Amino acid sequence: MVEQVRATRTRQTILSSAARIFEEHGYQAATISQILSAAGVTKGALYFHFQSKGDLALGVLAEQDQRLIVPDRASKVQEVVDSVMLHAYRLQTDPMVRAGVRLTMDQQANGLDRSGPFLRWAEVGQALLEKARAQGELLPHVVPVETAEVIVASFAGVQSMSQAVCNYGDLPSRVSALLRHLLPSAVVSSVLVSLDVSESRGATVYAEALRLFDEQGAEKAAV
Q1: pTM for this one?
Q2: Which residues are CB-neighbours of 219 under 8 A, at least 6 positions away?
Q3: 19 — phi, psi (to 5°)?
Q4: In 3-state terms, what secondary structure has residue 138?
Q5: Domain 2-63 falls under CATH 1.10.10.60
C-alpha cells in the first residue's frame, strides 16, 4: 500500500513537472532532461510511468479532465455554460490545464495526437445538448453535434487570443461575450433569460465543484 501511494505521488510529480516544461517551452522544444530536472526523479522512475515524451504529453492532456466535474444542473444549457466557464477559470489558475491547452493548440507538436481534448469536449457538449433538446431548451433547428463543435472551436479561438493578448487575464470576459453571442442562436428565449453567463461564473462553479470533489473523497475514505 505504501509503495502504491509513493508510486502515485511520483507519477503526479512527473506530470506536474512535465506540464510546467511543456507550457514554458512547447512540445517540440521540451526535453526529457528538463522534465527530469524539474521533477527531481531518476530516469528509471520516469520511464517506469511513461515510455516517452509523447506518452508524457498524452498524460498531461488526459490529466486536465480528471480532477473536477461540473455538478448536475436542471438546465442542461446552464451545465454547458458552467463547463465552459469552469474551463476558462482553470486556464487562469491551473498549470496542468494551461499546459494541456498549450499542447492541444501546438501545431508544431509533430507526431503528437492532439485531437483527444477537442473530441472529448465535443462529446461532452453534445451529450448535454442532447439532454437539453429533450427538455425543450433548444430551438427546433439546432443539431447538438454541430453546436457542440462550434462552441469548442470558438472557445479554442477565444482562449488563444486571450493568451496572446494578456496571458489569459481577460479570458472570463471574452468567454462571457462569446456565450452571449452564440447562445441566442440555439436556445429558446425562456431558458436564455435564466442563464448565468457572468464573468464570475467560472469561480463560482470551481468552488462548488471543488467542494463536491472533497465530499466525494471523504466518502470514499470513510468506506
Answers
A1: 0.84
A2: none
A3: -60, -45
A4: strand
A5: yes
